[in-house]
From TrEMBL:
The active site is at residue 248. InterPro entries: Ald_DH/histidinol_DH (IPR016161), Ald_DH_C (IPR016163), Ald_DH_CS_GLU (IPR029510), Ald_DH_N (IPR016162), Aldehyde_DH_dom (IPR015590). The keyword Iron does not apply. The lineage of its organism: Bacteria, Pseudomonadati, Pseudomonadota, Gammaproteobacteria, Pseudomonadales. This is Aldehyde dehydrogenase family protein. CDD domains: ALDH_F10_BADH (cd07110). It comes from Pseudomonas putida. Keywords: Oxidoreductase. Belongs to the aldehyde dehydrogenase family. Gene3D superfamilies: Aldehyde Dehydrogenase, Chain A, domain 1, Aldehyde Dehydrogenase, Chain A, domain 2. The keyword Oxidoreductase applies.
Length: 476
């Protein structure tokens, strides 16, 4: 796979110094290699986006909407290939890979509709002062750099790419070096649709490529999803240019279970919140707060449910959970198992890597975890659940909010008035009540505190790629 970069409407060979090895995590073995883009190629991609910007932002809203619908249709036509690639490169079970693809398709369709509404957003503004008129224009912010993670490739890129194109921006997309292949579908689709050259550019690479992009003075905005450590570097780069940035970072989210909740339903919601994508998601509800009155009934059932999850290779087995996506992540999760043993935590399920080929770990549950434990406070990014008991609603809210993160939370209670009250009190960007983590393109995504800056999805996702221009005219 030598022509792995899409620049100015052409597929080109990587000229960087890094060789990217693409792995099948269920086997722990590489199945493809590609050369990273060079710094010069990043420059070329940014220049291509800059050259394409005047014409692209001048296209009609209906033209841009047609391209976005084309992306949605083309993704659907590639369904089996993209689902299989998600399973092979990410280790996702088939049902998860299919949901990811459907999410990406829905995102392009949704922003096609919003694009068509853009002309009505330019409007006259009433003024109190006589002799003047005023109007607003929503304009594309310009050339944007999009840096996406490995845990939800195709999806996270759709959340950024679709609104950016809808707004009239031109784009440089950098996929994760762990999962660089699936985003190439967007370049293939751009070719198939006749998207003007330079509107979408894709460069693959490791840290050198990411730094070249985030430091580039030819960008007007950066949007990054990933770890807090890398996000802080991206923010520093943006601050040097006084450039707007959207950051979607980590989480250490709580799921709060009150004693009036149905035990079996609660177990279903808890398991989904920690085992989906093998817990490799910033929204994983990895802190379980369970009320005293239900704890003794819930914890044994939860223990059994986690122990009964089918873990294996999604390409060859019927599974509920696949492997961790990279060896680095496997080693990181294993280090937390070691920390738990050092801290003397009580383990009810799992707590170890699985003795088989590939990067598999067991779904894990620790109970009565102290608030100062690293496993309670740090994002693990694996199927590791820590539980604590609480007595009162006020205590549950205080402990859920006692985190440097603020991405999501889940509340489980038969008392809907209480559930709504607790949801309002939680310091996070998204709350589910009595539900698995259903994410809809019409709602917002993003967090408070250390979980990031800005919002994606919904109309907020589109506004992230728009600037507001005000035109005031004297008519006296």
């Amino acid at each position: 796979m030598t022509t792995s970069h899409y620049i100015a409407g052409h597929w080109v060979e990587g000229q960087g110094s890094d060789c990217i090895s693409v792995n099948d995590p269920a086997q722990g073995q590489p199945f493809a290699e590609l050369m990273a883009a060079s710094v010069t190629q990043v420059d070329q991609a940014v220049a291509a986006a800059r050259n394409a910007l005047p014409a692209w932002k001048s296209t009609s809203a209906s033209e841009r909407a047609a391209f976005l619908r084309g992306f949605a249709e083309q993704l659907g036509q590639r369904r089996e290939a993209l689902v299989t690639l998600q399973m092979r490169n990410n280790g996702k079970p088939r049902h998860e890979a299919e949901i990811d693809l459907d999410d990406a398709i829905a995102t392009f369709g949704y922003y096609a509709e919003l694009a068509e509404q853009l002309p009505s957003k330019n409007r006259t503004v009433p003024l109190a002062a006589p002799g003047f008129t005023a109007r607003t224009r929503l304009e594309p912010v310009g050339v944007v750099g999009l840096i996406v993670p490995w845990n939800f490739p195709l999806v996270t890129s759709a959340w950024k790419l679709a609104p950016a194109l809808a707004a009239g921006c031109t784009v440089l997309l950098k996929p994760s070096e762990v999962t660089p292949l699936i985003e190439q579908a967007y370049g293939q689709i751009a070719d198939a649709l006749g998207l003007p050259a330079g509107v979408l550019n894709i460069v693959n690479g490791k840290a050198e490529t990411g730094a070249a992009l985030s430091n580039h003075n030819g960008l007007d905005k950066l949007s990054f999803t990933g770890s807090n450590s890398v996000g802080s570097q991206v923010m520093r780069s943006a601050s040097a240019q006084c450039r707007p940035v959207t950051l979607e970072l980590g989480g250490k989210s709580a799921i709060v279970v009150f004693e009036d909740c149905d035990v079996d339903q609660a177990v279903e919601w808890i398991v989904a919140g920690i085992s989906w994508n093998a817990g490799q998601m910033c929204s994983a509800t990895s802190r379980l707060l369970v009320q005293d009155g239900i704890a003794n009934a819930l914890l044994p059932r939860l223990q059994a449910a986690l122990a009964n999850l089918r873990v294996g290779n999604p390409l060859t087995e019927e599974v509920d959970m696949g492997p961790l996506t990279s060896q680095a992540q496997w080693l990181k999760v294993a280090s937390y198992f070691a920390t738990a043993r050092e801290e003397g935590l009580q383990c009810l399920a799992g707590g170890h890597a699985l003795d088989r080929e590939g990067w598999f770990v067991s779904p894990t549950l620790y109970t009565d975890v102290p608030k100062d434990s690293r496993l309670w406070t740090e994002e693990i990014f694996g199927p590791v659940l820590c539980a604590r008991r609480f007595t009162t609603e006020e205590q549950a809210i205080a402990e859920a909010n006692d985190s440097r993160f603020g991405l999501v939370a889940t509340v489980c209670s038969a008392d809907l008035e209480r559930a709504e009250r607790v949801a309002d009190a939680l310091e996070v960007g998204h709350v589910w009540i009595n539900s698995v983590q259903a994410v809809f393109v019409e709602t917002s995504w993003g967090g408070t505190k250390g979980s990031g800056i800005g919002r994606e999805l919904g109309p907020w996702g589109l506004s992230a790629y728009q600037s507001v221009k005000h035109v005031t005219r004297c008519v006296g």
